[in-house]
Fold:
Amino acid sequence: MKTIASGSVRMQIARPQIDHLDFGDTGILRPSLDERALRGKERTLIITRQAVLTFFNRYLKADKRYDLERLKADFPEIKLVRFQGAIIQ
Structure:
């Protein structure tokens, strides 16, 4: 943790019953999913896609219209953890 640059951000998506496969299309392709579980997995996928788009546009294209705080406001499931040197806030 000491090697993480100050100002870095870790993003977490906190949703009930989320698992690793939910961050790609595999999570929604299970034939055994009921309607409620499918909607939850689709929500996780939407959040993931928007988070990646925001990151690339903000940090690779330097487009200030894309902001992690705004993304967090749009998706309350997102938790941002900011690093201050070796201290997490």
Q: What stands out?
A: The chain has one domain: 9-88.
